[in-house]
Design the sequence.
């Protein structure tokens, strides 16, 4: 295990606890999570592994295989967002202290990951969920998967300052192989949905920083839309709860760009719930059409796409893919493509050709398999 080897090389002793958590790709339900709507992610095979051991009181000593740089953090200081990736770890530790589930004193942590950073695959949630599980294991406190997901969410949202929803941490903690997870983000209710499709994940190579970027602006726009819509529907708490049948009323009530943002969220909410029904019935062709509709709404109404993402979706559609769309908030990162096996090779070649013509390089394309969520790992 790379993380354990790094721990021994850095600290000269063996770790005492280990855990891992996966990246994820969201099949459909983009920007609905923080608006109280449904999402439908699957866990990926790529994972982040965290190993942990004891350290001096009040300190986190951390190291990662990504850069090999050792850092010492006093997690009691209220500035977790100012430590780079260490801020996520510090946020987890602070939440565990609040929950009475932190190891006594401090902790030493080593991290190894094959989840790409900034690609829209939720590398941050994989880190926070794996860290929470490893540290709780070190403390010998048995936390349920939902408790781990909540700790990881608050670490990222409250301490680092990413105004995310609960999707990423929930799928990282609760995923099961061969299934997507329908998450109703307002209630945190979940339902496992069998997923029999074949997905290609296309990495555009364009990276984004969600903590300080457009995601926070979009969330502010959605909150402003809710504030205005409360004049029409005083009991409204979440933008996703606006009735789809009242779209004309919504459009009259909101100026741009709030109107477009809200129309996307309401439409995406309906698409996601319908998409879960289609997947449960094995109706992949109809589900694929929803993916195209979702991408167009993200591109035109939510304005969260990128030229590279649009090119991949268009090339996939021309080559006969069942469906395609951006995934992982947008503004770069990855696109997912739903294919049948007979056309997979042709679609893959078409995407590579189109991307190479436009950008002079071929994008990495991998096959997605719905994988398992967090787990304890053997310390070795």
Sequence:
């Amino acid at each position: 295990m790379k993380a354990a080897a790094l721990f021994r090389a850095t600290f000269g002793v063996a770790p005492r606890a280990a855990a891992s958590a996966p990246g994820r790709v969201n099949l459909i339900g983009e920007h609905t999570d923080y608006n109280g709507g449904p999402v439908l992610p699957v866990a990926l095979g790529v994972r982040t592994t965290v190993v942990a051991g004891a350290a001096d009181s009040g300190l986190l000593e951390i190291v990662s295989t990504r850069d090999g740089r050792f850092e010492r953090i006093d997690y009691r200081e209220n500035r977790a967002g100012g430590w780079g990736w260490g801020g996520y770890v510090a946020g987890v530790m602070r939440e565990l202290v609040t929950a009475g589930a932190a190891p006594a004193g401090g902790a030493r942590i080593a991290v190894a990951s094959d989840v790409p950073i900034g690609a829209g695959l939720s590398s941050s949630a994989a880190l926070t969920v794996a860290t929470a599980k490893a540290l709780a294991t070190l403390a010998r406190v048995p936390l349920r998967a939902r408790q781990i997901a909540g700790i990881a969410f608050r670490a990222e949202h409250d301490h680092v300052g990413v105004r995310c929803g609960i999707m990423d941490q929930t799928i990282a903690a609760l995923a099961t192989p061969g299934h997507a997870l329908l998450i109703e983000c307002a209630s945190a209710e979940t339902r496992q949905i069998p997923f029999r499709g074949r997905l290609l994940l296309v990495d555009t190579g364009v990276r984004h920083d969600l903590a300080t970027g457009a995601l926070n602006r979009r969330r502010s726009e959605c909150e402003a839309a809710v504030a205005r819509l409360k004049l029409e529907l005083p009991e409204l708490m979440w933008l996703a709860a606006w009735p789809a049948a009242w779209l004309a009323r919504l459009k009259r009530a909101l100026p741009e760009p709030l109107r477009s943002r809200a129309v996307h969220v309401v439409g995406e909410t309906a698409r996601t719930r319908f998409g879960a029904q289609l997947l449960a019935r094995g109706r992949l062709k109809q589900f694929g059409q929803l993916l195209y509709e979702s991408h167009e709404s993200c591109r035109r109404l939510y304005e969260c796409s990128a030229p590279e993402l649009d090119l991949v979706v268009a090339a996939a559609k021309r080559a006969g893919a069942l469906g395609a769309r951006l995934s992982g908030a947008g503004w770069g990162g990855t696109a997912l493509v739903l294919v049948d096996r007979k056309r997979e090779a042709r679609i893959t070649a078409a995407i590579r050709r189109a991307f190479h013509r436009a950008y002079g390089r071929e994008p990495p394309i991998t096959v997605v398999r719905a994988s398992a969520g967090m787990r304890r790992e053997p310390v070795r």
User: Anything to note?
Assistant: The chain has eleven helices and 13 strands. The chain has two domains: 2-31+43-166, 198-368.
